[in-house]
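Troubleshooting log. The previous structure file for this entry was overwritten by mistake, so regenerating from the original sequence record. Sequence copied from the archived sheet and checked twice against the printout by T.R.
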Amino acid sequence: MSLSLPGVTDWSAFTFLDHHRTALLQSIKEESREETRIEETGPSNNIREITCSEILGAIENVIQDIVTSLARNKAPVLTLVNRSDWRNIQFKDSVGLQMISHHTTRKIKSDCPKSATKFALILKMLSVIYKMVQDNTYATKRDIYYSDTLLFGSQSVVDNIVNDISCMLKIPRRSLHILSTTKGCISGNLSYTEEDGTKVNCTCNATAVIVPSNVQGIRNVITDAKFILIVEKDATFQRLLDDDFCNKLSPCIMITGKGVPDLNTRLLVRKLWDTCHIPIFTLMDADPHGIEIMCIYKYGSVSMSFEAHHLTVPAIRWLGLLPSDIERLNIPKDALIPLTKRDQNKLASMQKRPYMACQPMWKKEMEIMAASKMKAEIQALMSLSSDYLSRVYLPNKLQFGGWI
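Regenerated output below.
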């Protein structure tokens, strides 16, 4: 079992060991330079502000094509990218999962019973977006769904149509005046000003700050944080808040997406990376689901690969809970959970993903999990002591470079 070392519990004197921090920051700078080169030269990741006239023009072009088809007595067709097709995805270690330029598509035909409804819903959504852009108003996807629940049927229908339109127009979703409902929270050594002038102070206390719905509008970001910790679960996040982790363990920022992160939480992590350029670590359950969530933050998702340059942070490091930690710390077996068949299938699938080729240490950890056929939640550390996570595990990991 790892022991609490002298000085580690002396919170006021806590610092990273110099050689670990220097090496990590150097690695981050190299990745940053590579990413900057891609952003400066790549045609698909122009991050300039898109004007309202450009958005309106893009929508008008779609409508013009439909009118032209009708004038020729042809049934209008919309062409959408297959966003969930791995054949449309390429991996670059400095960007993550991004969509290739020559991607496969699917046709949404207005005269086909199977696709006519979706065709109509896309036109309805384009109309909603057009009016919001014209009026300079905003709405959440939830607002849009509840404006006509009978028409849309479910929230997931709205979500998919918005993403399809964003991909079709090659315009980020936030530029379409559609906001996401935020579930993520942030706390720690951070303050910023929102677009409307509201000043937000995230100083760590018992209550965290909700991730803003318009991350793009954040300005005047101020922090003395030495690192950012992404926490998978809200329960773990709250426990670290209760333990006053942000203040005790050097200045830091904590953020949680409460499971699979929403768009705003991912945008905020990317915003903080672009602004602060400090180490970013993840604290996830040692199970396939936790690893996948970490990969979403780091490399992105297939369905949102068309926005990879705005969402991914390849510099993220896996701090814990590592499968190898389970044996190293002698976590009791009754605190572990057997992998289900679904877990095993997901684990096998993830080991074949393209980004694993450049992460041999990650792959080794996944092999340890597969061989043991066991998984562990972060709460398993409580079997060692109630405050083991904040008092021993994280301090030791951070001080002695226990990330991969």
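The two ends are 20 Å apart (CA to CA). Archived copy saved in two places this time.
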